[in-house]
Amino acid sequence: MSHHKVDSQQRILQIVFQSVHLTRGDKLAISSAQIPSEFSNPNLEVLLSEEQLQTRIKELGGEITRDYAGRNPLLIGVLKGACFFLSDLLRAIDTRLSIEFMAISSYGSSTRTSGEVRIMKDLDVPVEGRHILVVEDIVDTGLTLSYLLANLESRGAASVKLAALLDKYERREKDVKIDYLGFKIPDEFVVGYGLDFAERYRNLPFIAVLKNPNHE
After folding, report:
1. Is 167 labeled as catalytic in the residue annotation?
2. Among 67, 88, 122, 140, which one carries the catalytic annotation?
3. Which residue of 63, 64, 68, 216 lies most exposed, with the fewest beta carbons within 10 A?
4. Which of 33-37, 114-118, 125-129 has the lowest mean pLDDT?
């Protein structure tokens, strides 16, 4: 076979490979473009940015560090919404501590809490004699949280305090003392940073108002 034929075949193969590569690239680009961004969903209006959240959480961590120095507090995260807040708050607290989790009946698929109090996941350790810090994502009516705090006190805890990222104070029906508060917010349905609507939007790195819950 002559060198000219070899060169011609190599050029043909090169053109074919380039064509296949470009076609795949175009398909990937088209495919990516068709996937809507959850983070820039037009149905969301940012209320608290990621930077605002992290700045305030570091401040709260500093307060808790000072108040609980040498006391080995037990932080109890209320599932599922408080998981983001608890995770970042833990890394902002510079003292010895432990963590546990509880799950309490909450919104379900509704935008309003029913006020029903039901512990769905209890603690795996006793709290007698421990300094307890309950970590919650949002306080609204206060019905479930007031029950939870009283329940922990009745188990013989040395102290029970509450850290909440958000306070929807306009909806309060039962007084609840928030010892460490992130932000007061208006009576809007909010999602993101662990808070959901029918299990959606938990992964947003910010807190946003859900403008139309029925809109995709």
Report:
1. no
2. 140
3. 216
4. 114-118
